[in-house]
User: Fold this.
Amino acid sequence: MGAILDCLGGIYELGRLAVVSRFRFRGAYWRWRLETAFGRGYPASRWELIRSVLAYGRWARRMRRGR
Assistant:
């Protein structure tokens, strides 16, 4: 049950971040985020990108909750 709540919290944080960045996914923040997460290249597959973005959302949730 904890893993499900962790995933839902991560999705919430990603949605919150999308609202805060005004859905400008090609903007400066998101370009910087991709560069720091993956360096110069993008992930090998879309699945890897999705998995990484969800992991970032879960991490952001944990940081905001103070765990």
Remarks:
- The chain has three helices and no strands.
